[in-house]
Amino acid sequence: MDLANPVPMLPLALAFRGLARAVAGVGRDPETKALPFVAAALVLTGTIFYWRFEDWTIVESLYFSVVTLTTVGYGDLHPTTDSTQIFTIFYILTGIGVFVALLASVAQQYIAQKAEQPSSRERLRARHHRDDS
Fold first, then answer.
1. Are 105 and 32 contacting, i.e. CB atoms less than 8 angstroms apart?
2. CA 67, 71, 75, 79 torsion-angle sign
3. What predicted TM-score, i.e. pTM, was given to this entire model?
């Protein structure tokens, strides 16, 4: 890929811009604006818990929290005591619900924003109509 020519990167940049706008939309919606904060608090809680009780580094604890809540579960780290295993059961059951709700809200905002925008064909038609005038 030619990095001097940014045109191939344009669709990716536009997709990330749309995603960022959808996340911002979740934050503005009164029904969903708490979800990003709840998800962040959940990740922070897990990170601190595993750092304290599993004797992992902060980075390992954060990594395990994110991998667990996103249901990726690589298996390279795992809770080793009964108490941390029990915490993890409740952490997963709570966290999956929060993350599914957050991702569904972001997707809903993204779809709603795309529906409000005119299609490429409609924009071209409007541009041709303006040029003809």
1. yes
2. positive
3. 0.73
